[in-house]
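Renewal narrative, Specific Aim 1. Our central claim is that a sequence can be written position by position from structural information alone. The example that follows is taken directly from our test logs and has not been curated for this report. It begins with the C-alpha cells describing the chain, in the order in which they were read.
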C-alpha cells in the first residue's frame, strides 16, 4: 500500500496550505510588500489585491464584497459579531441572547462574558445527535431577543443545524442571526441571503489557507434592530471602522485564493470525502463491538467522523503503538489540554466514560483512500489491545450488566 507516514487526519483542527494558495500568497510576502493603506503605487497594489480577495470570499458565501470584514481569524470574528452587536444595544430593550451548549469556546466565552455584564443568555441543549431544531429556537425567542448564535457545523462531530429554517425564524421575528461557519465554509454550500444569516465567521486555516487571517460577514441591508457593531479594537478605523490594524495582505490574498478554489471544487470534494468517511466508519464497526457514532448520521460534514469506544480511554488510544502514525484528535484542538470530557459530547448526553473514549478523525483535501485503508486495521488493533487489559470489557462480553455490579472501595 503506497502510503506516506505519518498520516494527517486532523483537518478540523487545521488544514495544510494548498500549494495553489501558497503560490498566490508568496508575491505579497516578497515583491508586493506594500501597506494597503499607503497612498502610493506599492500601497495601491496591495489594496487592489485585498479587494480582489474580498470579492472571492464574498462569492464563496453569497455575499457582496462590501459585507466582508477581514480579521485575524474566526475567534476575533465571533467576538466582533457577538460583543460588537451587544455593546451597541446595551441598556436597550434587546438584552437577550440565544446560543447552544455545543458551540465553540469562541462563542461560548463571549456569551459568558456578556452574561456577567447583565445580558440574559439562553443556552440551548441539543438533541442526542447534537442538533438544535428550528422549533427549539422559535420557542426560546422572546420580545427582548437580540441575537441567535448557532454554528453551521460542529467542530467535534460535524453535525449541522437546520440553518436555513433557523434563519427564516430569526428574520420573521426581527432577531439578528450569527453563525460560526469556521468548519463549513468551503466544505458545504453557503448562501447568507437565502439562509437568512446576518453575521458569519470564517477562518482561512480551516480551508487550506494560512493561520492568522479570517473574515466576518456583516449584512449590509437595513433591518430592525439595526446591524451596528462596536469595534473591539481602536486605532486607525480600518475595515470601515470595524477592525483597526494594518491589513495582513499576504494572508488576505491567501484567504481569497482558498475561497475561490473551495467554491470551484467543494461539491466534488464532498462526494469523495463522504465516501472515505463512510468507508472508515464501516470498516471499524465491522471489526469492533461497543462502538458509538457521535453526531448525526447524515446531517454532518463530509469529512468528520467522531466515534466512542467503550472500555477505552481516548488519550491512550491516540498514544498507542498501532496509532503512532495517525494524527487524530480527541476533540477540539482549542481545548485539548483539558482533561475534562468534551463539553460537546456531554451536552449531547454522551456519558463521561464514552466521552473520554472518543476520537475524531477529520479527513481533508489531501487524504487518500489508501490512507483510510491503512488506518482501519490500526485503529481496530489499538482498541483491541487496550480492551485486552480491561476487566470491564471481558465482563461486558460475558453478558454482565455492568450497571448492576456492586463495587467495593478499599
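The sequence written for that structure reads:
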Amino acid at each position: 500500500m503506497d502510503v506516506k507516514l505519518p498520516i494527517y487526519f486532523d483537518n478540523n483542527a487545521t488544514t495544510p496550505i494548498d500549494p495553489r494558495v501558497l503560490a498566490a500568497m508568496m508575491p505579497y510576502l516578497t515583491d508586493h510588500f506594500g501597506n494597503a493603506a499607503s497612498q502610493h503605487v506599492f500601497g495601491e497594489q496591495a489594496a487592489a489585491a485585498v479587494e480582489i480577495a474580498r470579492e472571492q470570499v464574498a462569492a464563496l458565501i453569497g455575499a457582496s464584497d462590501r459585507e466582508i470584514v477581514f480579521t485575524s481569524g474566526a475567534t476575533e470574528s465571533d467576538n466582533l459579531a457577538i460583543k460588537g452587536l451587544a455593546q451597541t444595544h446595551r441598556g436597550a430593550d434587546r438584552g437577550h441572547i440565544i446560543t447552544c451548549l455545543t458551540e465553540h469556546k469562541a462563542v461560548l466565552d463571549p456569551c459568558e462574558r456578556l452574561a456577567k455584564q447583565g445580558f440574559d443568555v439562553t443556552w440551548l441543549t441539543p438533541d442526542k445527535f447534537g442538533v438544535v431544531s428550528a422549533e427549539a429556537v422559535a420557542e426560546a425567542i422572546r420580545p427582548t431577543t437580540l441575537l441567535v448564535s448557532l454554528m453551521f457545523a460542529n467542530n467535534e462531530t460535524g453535525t449541522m443545524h437546520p440553518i436555513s429554517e433557523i434563519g427564516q425564524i430569526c428574520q420573521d421575528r426581527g432577531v439578528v442571526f450569527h453563525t460560526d461557519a469556521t468548519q463549513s465554509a468551503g466544505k458545504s454550500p453557503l448562501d447568507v441571503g437565502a439562509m437568512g444569516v446576518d453575521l458569519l465567521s470564517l477562518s482561512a486555516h480551516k480551508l487550506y489557507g494560512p493561520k492568522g487571517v479570517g473574515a466576518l460577514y456583516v449584512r449590509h441591508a437595513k433591518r430592525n434592530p439595526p446591524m451596528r457593531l462596536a469595534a473591539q479594537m481602536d486605532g486607525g478605523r480600518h475595515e470601515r471602522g470595524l477592525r483597526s490594524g494594518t491589513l495582513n495582505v499576504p494572508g488576505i490574498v491567501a484567504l481569497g485564493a482558498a475561497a475561490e478554489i473551495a467554491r470551484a471544487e467543494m461539491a466534488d470534494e464532498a462526494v469523495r470525502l463522504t465516501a472515505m468517511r463512510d468507508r472508515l466508519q464501516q470498516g471499524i464497526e465491522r471489526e469492533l463491538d461497543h462502538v458509538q457514532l457521535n453526531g448525526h448520521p447524515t446531517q454532518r460534514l463530509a469529512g468528520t467522523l467522531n466515534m466512542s469506544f467503550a472500555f477505552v480511554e481516548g488519550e491512550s488510544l491516540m498514544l498507542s503503538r498501532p496509532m503512532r502514525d495517525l494524527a487524530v484528535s480527541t476533540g477540539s484542538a482549542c481545548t485539548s489540554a483539558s482533561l475534562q470530557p468534551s463539553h460537546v459530547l456531554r451536552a449531547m448526553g454522551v456519558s463521561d466514560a464514552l466521552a473520554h473514549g472518543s476520537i475524531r478523525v477529520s479527513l481533508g483535501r489531501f487524504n487518500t483512500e489508501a490512507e483510510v485503508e491503512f488506518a482501519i486495521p490500526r485503529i481496530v488493533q489499538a482498541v483491541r489491545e487496550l480492551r485486552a487489559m480491561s476487566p470491564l470489557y471481558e465482563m461486558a462480553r460475558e453478558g454482565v450488566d455492568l450497571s448492576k455490579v456492586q463495587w467495593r472501595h478499599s
